[in-house]
């Protein structure tokens, strides 16, 4: 699959049952529909983040096209105290995270430091995930 932002080919990283498509040029990440929920399982605030997601109609950010169907995606907001603008395919293909956005979500989700998933994510994203 090619990165919807810079068109480079993305690398598939497997984390248990979740396939993370990561672009190493712009550091963006694509998660298929339902994978964010899977990824955040076991974190303290993951569910809260999922429930916090709302459409963001007034965003001035340039739309990103879905890497699966090519349709312009919808802007959504995720998070409570700090909201992050993400792009979601209306055809339910998945969610696009610009470089650094998934790291922020993972940090907000609050995994314990000894959590296994958190350990993997740190390996993938390095020290950007605190
Ligand atoms: Zn890219
Ligand atoms: Zn799509």
Folded structure, characterized:
There is one protein chain. The protein is of the alpha+beta class. The protein is built from four helices and seven strands; from the N terminus they run E-E-E-H-H-E-E-E-E-H-H. The chain has helices spanning 35-40, 46-52, 101-109, 116-125; strands at residues 11-15, 18-22, 29-32, 54-55, 74-78, 84-88, 94-97. It has a seven-stranded antiparallel β-sheet with strand order 1-2-3-7-6-5-4. A hairpin with a 5-residue loop joins strand 5 (74-78) and strand 6. It is globular. One zinc ion binds at residues 66, 68-69, 71, 89, 91, 93.
Summarize the structure.
This protein has helices spanning 35-40, 46-52, 101-109, 116-125, and strands at 11-15, 18-22, 29-32, 54-55, 74-78, 84-88, 94-97.
Indicate the proportion of strand residues. 15-25%
The domain count comes to 1
How would you classify the helix and strand content by structural class? alpha+beta
Mean pLDDT: 91
> How many separate helices?
4
How are the SSEs placed, and which strands pair?
Blueprint: E1 11-15, E2 18-22, E3 29-32, H1 35-40, H2 46-52, E4 54-55, E5 74-78, E6 84-88, E7 94-97, H3 101-109, H4 116-125
Antiparallel strand pairs: 1-2, 2-3, 3-7, 4-5, 5-6, 6-7
Helix pairs in contact: 2-3
């Amino acid at each position: 699959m090619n990165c919807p932002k810079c068109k480079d080919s993305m690398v598939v990283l497997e984390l248990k049952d979740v396939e993370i498509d990561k672009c190493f040029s712009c550091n963006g990440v694509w998660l298929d529909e339902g994978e964010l929920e899977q990824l955040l399982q076991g974190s303290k605030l993951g569910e809260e983040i999922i429930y916090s997601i709302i459409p963001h109609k007034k965003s001035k950010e340039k739309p990103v096209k879905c890497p699966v169907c090519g349709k312009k995606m919808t802007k959504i907001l995720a998070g409570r105290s700090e909201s992050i603008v993400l792009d979601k395919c209306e055809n339910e293909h998945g969610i696009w995270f610009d470089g650094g956005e998934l790291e922020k979500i993972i940090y907000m989700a609050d995994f314990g430091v000894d959590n296994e998933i958190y350990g993997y994510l740190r390996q993938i994203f390095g020290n950007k995930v605190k």
